[in-house]
Amino acid sequence: MNSLISFLFATLTFATLLLAEEGFNFITIGDWGRTRTAGVPNKQDDVARQMDVWARENNAEFVLTLGDNFYPDGVFSADDEQFETKWRNVYLNPYPSLRVEWKISLGNHDHRVFTGHYQVEFGKTEPLWELPSFNYTFTKTFGDTSVFFVVVDSDSLYWLVNDTLNEQVSWLDETLEQASADWVIVAAHHPVYSSGHHGSDFGMIDDVRPILLKHNVDFYLAGHEHDLQHLNGPPGDSIEYVISGGGGASARPQNEIAVEDLKDMNVTQKMFNSINGFTGIKVKQNSITVEYVDLEGTMFYSFTKYKN
Ligand SMILES: [Fe+2]
User: Where is each Calcineurin-like phosphoesterase domain found (predicted)?
Assistant: First the structure.
C-alpha cells in the first residue's frame, strides 16, 4: 500500500510540475460592481456565472480587474459593505473557483469622490484583494518564463487624484525600463484605442502609448468601455490592445465617430462586441491567447500572440 501511495504521490507531483512548466491562465473583467437591488440578479451575476465555468475549466490562477470596481461612486471606507454585496457575495461566496487572488485596477468611478485609497486599505486586511498602491507591478513565472504585469492608475493620469501626469508617466517609463521579463502586460482602466462609447483616449495616445512602444509592451488591457474589443495599432505597433469592460455595467453601442477616428489613425479594429462578458487569458512560454466569452459562456472570439 505504501508503495502505491508513493507512486501516486510521485505521479501527482510530476503532473503538477508539468502544469507549472506549461504556463498559467487568468481572467480579466472591467466595469463590474453594479448598483444592486437586493435579491435581484443582474448582468454582473450572469458574467460571474460564466467566469466560474471558465475558471474551473482552465484552472484560473487569478482575476485581474480593469477598474470601475464599484458603481457609482466607489467605496466610502475600508469596510464598506459594497466589498460584500458587489464582490464577495457575487464571486467568492458562490464560486470556489473565483476564490483566487484578485489583482485590482482602479477606474474613474472608483476615484469619483476621491476615495480610491479605501480600496488600497481594504487590501491590507483582505489577502485576496491585491492593491498595494494605485500603481504597482507583479511578476508571474513558470519554468524559465516570466511575465511582468504593470497596473497603471489611468484615472489619476488626467484627474490628478494621485501623482501628476509627468510623475506617473516617468514611473511607467522607469518601471518598464527595468523589466526583463519574456512577456510584458500593462493593465489600466482607460483604453488607448477604442470605437466604443468614449472612443480613443487622445491623452493616452500622446502620453502613454509612446512609453509602451519604447519598451515593447506585448499587451495593453483596459476597460472603461462597456463592451469587448480587440484592436491593433498603426503599422509598426505590435501591441495587442484588449478591452474587457463587459463585467456588469449596461453594454453600450459602437460610436461611429470613434470608428472614423480609428480609420484616420490607421488602427485596425479586429473585433468589437457590445455585450457583457469577460476575457480569459492563457499564458504559455511562446504564446498568449485571449478568449472573449459572452453571457452564455460562448467563446465568440479569440486570438493568439506568438513569440519565439
Ligand atoms: Fe470608466
Answer: 26-227
